[in-house]
Please model this.
Amino acid sequence: MNDKVEIFSIGTELVSGLVLDTNSHWLAGEITLAGGDVRRVTALADDLRALKEELQAAVDRDARLIITTGGLGPTPDDLTVDAVAAVAGSRVHTPTEVLEDFARRREMTVEEVSTPPRIKMGSIPASSTLYLNPVGWAPCFATEVNKSLIWSMPGPPREVEGCFTHHIQPAIQDMFSAQTARLRVYVDSFESETSPFMQRVMNEIPTAYLKAYVGQSRENGLPVDIVVRSEDGIDPNILLEKTHALFCTVAGEAGKTVTREPTAPLRE
Model:
């Protein structure tokens, strides 16, 4: 089954170094735990042509799920709706439901809230499914294009987490064929010494991924993440324990100890 996922963070402020993209980091972790196979994480400037090209490329790569964050506001540089609509071959419209939601929350009439900036902020592709924003203003929306499902959310991290938790997470719960589990351990060896341990484990358990972080080393422990994907219905936690046990055995054969928690300060 196709579990491929691509994440796009949109905003010139991201690619110019003005704002740190924390959304992709958080989303990649959540989607991986949900069983998705995140293949690409891309930051894009507010350029309509580039947005259309990159989204179309993701569709052409048969990504099952495409996530976009940013570019849904009322300002001229907010171009995500136009880009998704172009890829979907759809026109853009502003659902009455969005303006009614704006009016209710601002205690105004629909006519009063229907200014050009708010109409733009409430717009979505006509072929998309609307989901009201539970913690902000610009709505999120889902758009089917060929074999891909594009979910678009506003850029503020609080709104990304709110939209994902309320709308996307329940929708993708049964989308993926795999299940994922992960664990961080610490081994009392240097990265160069640990590399053969990790390679042997990944050779023996192909669905396991091990990653060491030398920059976070402690005096008696190099942190190593163990991530496993189960695609055959096996409980991923059982596979995780098997992988952890093998890593402990391999490290132990070299006289090294593996612990689940650090017991020493960071290595200077």
About this structure: The chain has two domains: 4-172, 179-259. The chain has a mean pLDDT of 94. The first strand starts at residue 4 and ends at 10.
